[in-house]
Amino acid sequence: MKTALFVYAHPGPKSFTADLRDRTEPALTELGYDVVASDLHAQNFPPLLDRHDFMLAADADDPRVASSGRD
């Protein structure tokens, strides 16, 4: 069986994105897909990233990275 991953991340239950989710999942199921849904908002996924999210542990001790002055 084919699998479709539906990633949803909108806080509004009546949003356009929620409507797409609600219409897409049954349509994909009807086409033979096993639909896996992931609601990032319900999982409290932080939607914002900064440079700290991309730093490697090895870079933490590198003064060129740690003191770049940019966020």
Query: How many distinct domains?
Result: 1
Which of globular, elongated, flat, extended, rod-shaped describes the shape?
elongated
Rg, Cα atoms, Å: 19 Å
Strand order of the largest sheet: 1-2
Biggest pleated sheet: 2 strands, parallel
Pairing-aware structural class of the strands and helices?
Answer: alpha+beta
Indicate the topology:
Layout: E1 2-8, H1 16-30, E2 33-39, H2 63-66
Parallel strand pairs: 1-2
Q: What features would you describe in this structure?
A:
With 71 residues, this protein is of the alpha+beta class. The protein has one domain (2-66). Helix content is 27%, strand content 20%. It is built from two helices and two strands. Strands 1-2 form a two-stranded parallel ribbon. Helix 1 (16-30) links the parallel strand 1 (2-8) and strand 2 (33-39). The longest helix has 15 residues, at 16-30. It is elongated, with a radius of gyration of 19 Å. The relative contact order is 0.18.
